[in-house]
Specification:
The protein is α+β, with helices and mostly antiparallel strands and 348 residues long. The protein is built from 14 helices and twelve strands. Keywords: Nucleotide-binding, RNA-binding, Transferase.
Length: 348
């Protein structure tokens, strides 16, 4: 099985400098997968500190899960069954995204996402109850009892940037073939703290986007420049608010600027998508913090105009630290909820 996302020699949309690599050669990724990879030309990278977001391109890191205090016992049983099923078939498997972030923070993940070297059709063949969903970014839904575990593939088509970022995105130094596959996938993530991969068998956490440093600093930072990221997918603005509210993190300066100044893009979203994102904010235990951030950055008027009108009538300032009746109600609701114990949307 060839991982097609690396067959980019004929893909002009792939955002890397043409001179970044010397040659293409066939190598083995695992016992069941061969991929096309490239040797990094180090002298092209040295001295280049162009930004991926609003910081210098980070050095990639590999850390043991023990060093981070991350235990496999925190992984849910349905997720373990899917991981084991793919691993037994000879595929590379990783936990990826927000669940890795939450495990590092000793929080209960809302859900677990898996990425694998298997093609989606191979994932379907590996499990009796599994189907491919999604048109633009297809993934597999694996049913384990009453739980759905999402599985994506490295072979799924990667990001197609709307602007030329060849001068902004640089491959990590000393990047081997497997690192390159993982790194390229991490470029598709929304925020650096969601760009982490965890191999539960080797017990290694891979960080190519500087996510661990941003977790340490409690910062929400986009992987690519925030203005470009939010124009590509304006729903990321709402996800940024949700993450900051739930974790008690702050936006970086660049992220904060574009959350506020590109808020009008949210009008592009259809009502079901807005309802889904708002439910994630308000029904999982971080409603009060979410409302404060939405109000601070001028988003509340677009999303919940009645609540915004109440804030105006109450004389509530954008950076007000006080509370009011509405915030008190949501604060009391938050005490009863958690990511694994949400409420029905009718309550908010």
């Amino acid at each position: 099985m060839a991982i097609s996302s690396l067959s980019f020699a004929c893909r002009p949309g792939f955002p890397l400098r043409p001179c970044l690599f010397r040659r293409i050669q066939k190598v083995r990724f695992s016992s069941v997968a061969a991929i096309e990879t490239l040797d990094v030309q180090e002298n092209v990278i040295k001295g280049n500190s162009r930004n991926l977001g609003d910081c210098k391109a980070p050095e990639w890191k590999k850390l043991s899960s023990k060093e981070l205090g991350l235990s496999n016992s925190l992984i849910s049983m349905p997720t373990k069954k899917v991981l084991n099923g793919l691993k037994k078939n000879g595929y590379e498997v990783y936990l990826v995204g927000g669940c890795v972030r939450d495990l590092i923070l000793k929080r209960i993940p809302k859900d677990f996402d898996i990425i694998t070297s298997a093609e989606l059709k191979e994932v379907v063949r590996a499990f009796s109850r599994c189907e491919i969903v999604g048109k633009w970014f297809p993934i597999c839904h694996v049913h384990v009892g009453d739980t759905i575990v999402e599985v994506s593939s490295f072979s799924t088509t990667g990001r197609k940037f709307k602007v030329d970022l060849r001068n902004d995105i640089i491959c990590p130094i000393d990047c081997d073939e497997k690192d390159y596959v993982r790194w390229k996938n991490c470029l598709q993530r929304d925020f650096t703290i969601n760009g982490l991969m965890f191999d539960p068998y080797k017990r290694i956490v891979y960080d190519y986007m500087g996510g661990l440093e941003d977790i340490k600093k409690a910062k929400v930072r986009t992987v690519i420049p925030a203005g470009i990221s939010f124009q590509e997918d304006c729903a990321r603005i709402l996800r940024a608010v949700r993450i900051a509210a739930r974790l008690g993190f702050r936006f970086t300066r660049e992220t904060a600027h574009f959350v506020k100044n590109l808020s009008h893009l949210l009008l592009r979203l259809d009502k079901p998508r807005i309802m889904m994102e708002m439910n994630y904010m308000l029904a999982y235990g971080s409603a009060e913090a979410s409302l404060r951030i939405l109000w601070k950055f001028g988003l509340l008027e677009l999303l919940l105009p009645i609540q915004a009108a109440y804030f105006v009538r109450d004389g509530f300032k954008r950076r007000d630290k006080r509370s009011n009746m509405l915030l008190c109600l949501f604060s009391n609701l938050d005490k009863l909820l958690a990511p694994d114990r949400p409420c029905h949307s009718s309550l908010w």
